[in-house]
Design brief:
With 183 residues, this protein is an alpha+beta fold. The protein has helices at 20-23, 101-110, 112-138, 141-151, 153-158, 161-168, 172-182, and strands at 25-29, 39-45, 48-52, 63-68, 72-76, 86-90, 94-100.
């Protein structure tokens, strides 16, 4: 029987004895695993890529939007037109715990702590998205890579080059040239 390592999520203000933990379902994933939609995810181990995927085009033109690593909590939703454009793709093997968003909404209504946690989580997500947007608008690809080296070194360490290049908005070859220049 699987047991979640709650401590890996300590950076989030979640009570270790809260109701959410009893509702989580484990998924041992590999690259071929299709993750469920409309879920709140607790990534215990592994790497998940959030991408915009155009099923009619070449997979190499997919756009990497974000990456989730050990200890990240994120939502994988499909409840509106914007969210349905995203695909959540495992990169390698790992374990993810999830709960259906319907269940999460019930918990938010029943618990002030859950509601407060949601507010903190959403504020952090909004801050990260605004920072990413500013970076994309104001930075050159080399500046973006230097920012990742400083602020998201695990991305540079664990994310495959082609996905990291897509995240920056350049080709893998251009990213290789930037990396050679910097080192």
């Amino acid at each position: 029987m699987d047991v979640i390592d709650k401590h890996i999520f300590d950076r989030y203000p979640i009570d270790h004895y809260g109701a959410i933990w009893d509702k989580l379902v484990p998924v041992h994933f590999s690259r071929k695993t299709v993750l469920p939609k409309d879920i709140l995810c607790f990534l215990q181990k592994g790497l998940i890529r959030k991408a915009i995927v155009d099923s009619t085009s070449d997979p190499e033109t997919d756009i990497s939007v974000d990456f989730f690593l050990d200890g990240d909590i994120f939502t994988a939703k499909a409840d509106n037109e914007v969210e349905r454009q995203f695909s959540y793709q495992p990169i390698g093997k790992g374990i993810l715990w999830y709960v259906a968003m319907d269940e999460v909404r019930k918990l938010f209504l029943e618990s002030k702590l859950c509601s407060a946690t949601q507010k903190v989580f959403l504020e952090e997500q909004l801050r990260a998205k605004v920072l990413r947007e500013i970076q994309l608008l104001k930075s050159t690809p080399e500046e973006m890579y230097l920012f990742l080296l400083k602020h998201k070194p695990l991305f540079v360490q664990y994310v495959p080059l082609k996905y990291l290049a897509s995240y920056i908005g350049i080709t893998p070859q251009a990213l290789s040239r930037i990396r050679r220049r910097i080192s």
